[in-house]
Design goal:
CATH topology of one domain: Beta-galactosidase, Chain A, domain 5
Number of helices: 21
CATH class of one domain: Mainly Beta
CATH architecture of one domain: Distorted Sandwich
Helix content: 25-40%
Largest sheet: 10 strands, antiparallel
Length: 896
């Protein structure tokens, strides 16, 4: 493992790199909750936007990040022989090659430094988006004289303004430039297109884009070039603009409108004495309120204001990152974990779009992402998580499927980003996982009785049919036959999602794969494909709902009358669960009864009978999986393809194994502890990469699987075909820890970290990417569900700090290796709206299975002595009574 790309330099997880400019796919995220979002490369390529239809800078994908000539730039003209880009983006003049480069970045800001002896100057460019919420990205530039002589120069900030939808990057690029309306002001340029171009229906545009700049003492630019044509000239480009390279002043703007806009701001000639410096501020923003622009400029038009805002932004993100923090005495891990801990926040803002690895995206988060982000939110701020969970259930359809996208407005559910009728069969699993964690952490069982609506659109029968009678004007709320909006409890939503799937089976009586499961690449087995892997999770979910009902303690549960069709033991005619056709008939009957609306009538269901029904279903499905899908090779089969064939096992001498099947069998409890050990052994044998150290998503199947999914048409070792997919690795680690296999779990979770910081291979900044390819390169940085599961596993399994129906449980599963640097390590987190730091003291450096909890102290006072037990529980009321208000409460646990 070699980390040569960057190095942490302080206790705030700031890192420094002198080699970042050598990797042309690196990018850094900036954002706030406005939201305004940007990506920056080490030479300030990247884009800036507030959404898919409002890009100030030209949209970029991974490969376009540095191939594009469009970038944020800052030019220095000394004389015709000395022209220098302070960002490093310039046609080779012979000078640029002499740059000495370094980068520093922190939570969430970036500073690039370039020093050039030939030109005699040093530049520092700090970029950030203020956490205070203004829709603006700020560049603060300092130019310093590093010689003993005076230097005269002319500085020009150069920001090409795209100013429109990402759709127009290739579609109607010229036509949409004709819509641009450009205004020059004293301090910069404002661009407001006349229309939002959309051939399905053009609309008046309300969005304005601006680039303003100011030098010290509030000095405005001397000249402004408001179009790329005027700045670049006829014979050059943005990497050698004629205005700079020929030192040309702008001509009078006879023809400005309807052209590609430019925010090129040329400042007055500056003379710097030896060691003297000058500073400049460039503001790039997007707003739907034109009057807001002057207010934004007034707020950030001096160095003092910028520095104050930058410090506030650093504090904001450090607080976000520090909600859960670790002190393991491994400085690299502790600081790297801070970056992982802001990833769920970044995804809440960016969605799964708007960074170069994610192409342009279209905004919003996917259904799976929505619920997994709630895991981290529950651990950090359960008070915020509760209402969000209830709101999210309004994306569930009455047929147990769901809208797949949620927009920036959390009540805006969208059937599918690409308007394709389809269903992912695993989507019903995740809402219960998130809700169960919330209830365990808080003890708030009443959330199960809170009500939420259902999503309604033209898709019926889990997208197998289209409702020809439905029209958009009906709205997206499920209604009763009397046309009144219908709401059901959170519990009812959970039951429908899981009961429907129990009956929704394929030829082998496992749950149908439909459009795909968690592995989106398994998308070509819709007719006969089955996911045994997620059948394990649905079986587990049925048991969890039964457990929640037992804890809820109510004699009866009110449920929509139609759901009785799915409750076998409550009907006069009971189904034989082994009879596939009978199951499908039951499902069809439920679909027919709910296809155009619901009765709205609620029935009182005896809780004990409901629990019995759920347990019977879970037991039947579990026994069916265990009996039929544990293979002689020593792992579970996870799938059946569209030819009704079992996917995994030894096939013609080729060992086919997926990590998904093993991870979910362990995580769900489908595998016994001994089977879990065997699964880990075989995953290590067949899936672990001996060179990279990570676990591949699957073995190499050696041929395309057109009867299963597109994934196997990708080259092996990339994306869904055998990459080291950190999300599934984290689930595997979590499941192993749940089984008490701490050594095995630690090996898996450590492999994720080790690959991330092995920057010779990963070539990424500190973060947990979505996956590593066959070369070990980190792909799709920042916006992944892997982070939530990694954080969850570290907190509640590795350090063993978790809730149990509102009580605090301490049950560490720490290995000897984790105490190699010191005999005490700790984790800081939130619990019951209090800040706690749980510190484990292990003087003999014993590992899990060898130690027991001997003593527990709370804020210096012993609350348990001379005990010998693997876990310790504090009731919620006792815990709160011990806490100091608004203080960090120290819980020290002696292990021996």
């Amino acid at each position: 493992m070699a980390n040569t790309l960057w190095k942490f330099i302080d206790d705030k997880a700031t890192f420094r790199s002198t080699d970042a400019n050598r990797i042309n796919t690196l990018y850094f995220p900036l954002c706030n909750t406005a939201p305004i979002m940007s990506s920056l490369s080490p030479d300030l390529h990247g884009d800036l936007k507030t959404g898919f239809h409002s890009f100030l800078l030209e949209p970029v994908s991974r490969l376009g990040l540095n191939n594009s000539k469009s970038s944020r730039n800052f030019w220095i003209y000394v004389n015709p022989q000395k022209i220098w880009s302070a960002t490093g983006v310039s046609k080779d003049t012979g000078i640029q090659k002499e740059d000495k480069f370094s980068l520093e970045a922190g939570l969430l800001w970036q500073k690039i430094t370039r020093q050039n002896k030939k030109i005699g100057l040093k530049s520092e460019i700090t970029s950030f988006i203020p956490a205070s919420g203004e829709p603006v990205e700020i560049m603060h530039i300092r130019i310093a004289n590093i010689t003993q002589k005076k230097i005269k120069y002319v500085a020009t900030a150069a920001i090409p303004v795209f100013g429109r939808s990402a759709n127009n990057l290739h579609d109607h690029r010229h036509v949409t430039s004709l819509l641009q309306r450009i205004k020059k002001g004293r301090f910069g340029v404002m661009v407001k297109p006349a229309l939002s171009f959309d051939e399905t229906g053009h609309k008046k545009n309300l969005t304005s884009y601006f680039v303003f700049g100011v030098a010290r003492k509030n000095s405005p630019p001397e000249y402004i070039y408001s179009t790329q044509e005027a700045f670049v000239g006829e014979s050059s480009d943005l990497e050698a603009p004629e205005a700079v390279f020929r030192n040309l002043k702008p001509e009078k703007d006879a023809h400005v409108q309807g052209k590609e806009a430019m925010g090129a701001l040329r400042f007055k000639m500056q003379t710097l004495k030896a060691k003297e410096s000058a500073s400049y501020i460039v503001l790039m923003g997007i707003t739907k309120n034109e009057a807001e622009i002057e207010r934004i400029f007034a707020r950030f038009n001096t160095e003092e204001k910028i520095e104050k805002s930058l410090e506030a932004t650093k504090i904001y993100w450090q607080k976000k990152s520090g909600q859960i923090s670790v002190d393991t005495k491994d400085i690299n891990f502790d600081h790297w974990f801070k970056w992982v801990n802001i990833q769920p926040v970044l995804r809440k803002i960016f969605g799964c779009s708007f960074l170069p690895d994610f192409d342009y995206g279209k905004g919003g988060r996917g259904w799976r992402d929505l619920w997994q982000d709630c895991l981290a939110l529950t651990l950090n701020d359960p008070k915020e998580a509760g209402p969000l969970l209830v709101n999210n259930f309004s994306g569930v359809r009455i047929d147990g499927s769901n809208a797949t996208i949620i927009g920036p407005n959390l009540s805006e559910f969208i059937a599918d980003r690409n308007d394709i009728p389809r269903v992912w069969m695993d989507h019903g699993v995740w809402p219960l996982i998130a809700t169960y964690l919330y209830i365990r952490q808080t003890g708030d069982l009443k959330i199960l009785l809170e009500e939420s609506g259902y999503f309604r659109d033209r898709q019926l029968f889990r997208s197998q049919k289209i409702d020809s009678e439905w029209k958009p004007e009906y709205g997206t709320e499920l209604k009763t036959h009397n046309n009144a909006p219908y709401k059901g409890s959170v519990l009812e939503h959970l039951l429908i999602e899981n009961l429907v799937q129990f009956f929704n089976v394929g030829p082998h009586n496992f749950i149908r794969l439909e459009g795909a499961d968690w592995n989106d690449g398994l998308d070509m087995a819709e007719k006969y494909g089955e996911s045994v892997a997620f059948s394990c999770m649905y079986a587990r979910n049925l048991l969890v709902i039964a457990e929640l009902l037992e804890k809820l303690g109510q004699d009866k549960i009110m449920l929509l009358k139609e759901t009785l069709l799915l409750l076998n033991t409550l009907r006069e005619t009971q189904s034989n669960y082994s009879d596939i056709n009978a199951k499908l008939r039951t499902l069809d009957k439920y679909f027919q009864n709910t296809k155009h609306g619901v009765s709205g009538i609620k029935a009182a269901i005896p809780t004990k009978e409901l629990i019995r029904d759920l347990k019977e279903k879970a037991l039947w499905l579990s026994e069916h999986i265990r009996k039929n899908e544990w293979l002689k090779e020593g792992f579970f089969n996870g799938y059946y393809n569209n030819d009704k064939q079992r996917v995994e096992g030894n096939r013609g001498g080729i060992m086919r194994m997926t990590l998904t099947a093993s991870a979910l069998a362990v995580m769900s409890g489908m595998a016994t502890k001994e089977q879990a050990k065997t699964l880990f052994h075989n995953a290590s044998k067949y899936l672990k990469d001996k060179g990279l150290g990570g676990f591949h998503l699957n073995t190499d199947f050696k041929e395309e699987q057109l009867n299963l999914g597109r994934a196997f048409s990708f080259v092996y070792g990339d994306k869904e075909n055998g990459a080291v997919f950190n999300h599934m690795c984290a689930l595997f680690a979590y499941g192993l820890y749940k089984h008490g296999l701490a050594k095995e779990g630690y090996e898996v979770i450590s492999s994720i970290y080790n690959m991330s910081v092995d920057t010779e291979k990963s070539k990424i900044y500190p973060c947990l990417p979505e996956y590593f390819n066959a070369e070990g390169r980190g792909m799709y940085s920042y916006l992944t569900g892997s982070a939530s599961w990694f954080i969850l596993t570290v907190l509640i399994e590795v350090f063993g700090v978790r809730g149990e129906y509102g009580d605090l449980v301490i049950e560490p599963k720490l290995n000897t290796e984790q105490f190699k640097n010191k005999n005490a390590i700790s984790i800081t987190a939130n619990f019951a709206e209090r800040r706690i730091k749980v510190r484990y003291v292990n003087p003999r450096k014993k590992g899990f299975g060898s130690y027991a909890i001997r003593r527990v102290s709370f804020n210096g006072k012993d609350i348990a002595e001379n005990i010998k037990q693997p876990r310790f529980t504090l009731s919620r009321s006792y815990f709160i009574s011990l806490c100091l208000p608004d203080k960090l409460n120290i819980i020290e646990v002696l292990l021996d």
